[in-house]
Amino acid sequence: MADCAHLLLRGTLPTRKQRRDFQREVRGHRLVHEHLIRFFQGFNHDAHPMAILVSVVGALSAFYNDDHDYRDPAKRDLAGMRCVGKMATLAAYSYKTAHGQPIVYPRDDLNLAQNFMYMMFALPTRPYDLDPVACRCLEVILMLHADHEQNASTSTVRIAGSSQANPFACVAAGVASLWGPAHGGANEAVLAMLEEIGTVDRIPKCVARAKSKTDPFRLMGFGHRVYKQMDPRARLMRDMCHKLLDHLKIKDPLLDLAMELEKVALSDDYFISRKLYPNVDFYSGICFRALGIPREMFTVIFAVGRSVGWIAQWIEMAGEEVSRISRPRQMYEGAPERPFVPLSERRREDGDEETDDSRPDSADDLHHLGRMLSVRIANSHGA
Q1: Which residues are catalytic?
Q2: 2-129+146-180+295-318: CATH homologous superfamily?
Q3: Nearest alpha carbon to residue 94 among 330, 235, 297, 342
Q4: Region (Disordered) spans which residues (predicted)?
């Protein structure tokens, strides 16, 4: 993940020395201010982790308000490193808060994925052993979600950044956009679909329903708006998914169902001819389930990976010689121009009651109101 982040933030794959320096710098930004931790204590025990994350990422603006001068490349880079270093910490604390568990501080001897797993699942009462295959799977997920052209959340970050807002406020805007089920919730929809299918023997019937134009049922996690061949990220995610399941030797009917559905779809002429291949969301949801990560954390982890791309986009935009605020245009198709009608002349509906608001103000009314306010202010000062 360090190489991926270095490439996005600084434009090149790092040398060995640059890699060590980059990792050391990121580790130095993993901790968050102790006062910020108090924010987590104010959320309800059943708060959604995304609701917590969008709040605390925005709150970082209060701690780093003056160090993001757009004209200074060093300060832009510093803001980026802070974001990369702290996002996993904030996401893990959001998980702990939503589950009523004590927070676990990051460790400098672990990489990003290992640290994230440790902060999510470790407890102060017992040791926690990291599974290297599970950590590698999470690292692959984070890398594959790091950046993906001008999607909704990335565009949101750039639009917010075009006003020269604090970079953490821009990233918080991206988190809020990602939260929508049409964007970051696709892998959750995959598991919901698998639960609806239920058992392997119902797959042929559900596939037939998905082919029908009159049936609203759809196979989630298939096809992609950009990729007309198989999503290249999905190939890597599929291989990692199968490796993880073999390694963990999990007996989960839902995971078995997903693997069978994959086989059926990849051999069906209907899906092949329409290039409806399983995409990255199909496999990532399965991996999350195998890792024991609850469904409400799926989009949070998506945000951790994508935050590297968000901040890289922000740095790129902020470094442009000519800075213009984003101003999308729209074509008005509403009612034509209409004359203004005073309230006293508008048609009354049945049930309308005559009130003081229904008559126009006069100069005498305003003068009387002014005298009343003056008396009240004088009396309050005298008291």
Answers
A1: 224, 281
A2: Citrate Synthase, domain 1 (1.10.580.10)
A3: 297
A4: 336-365
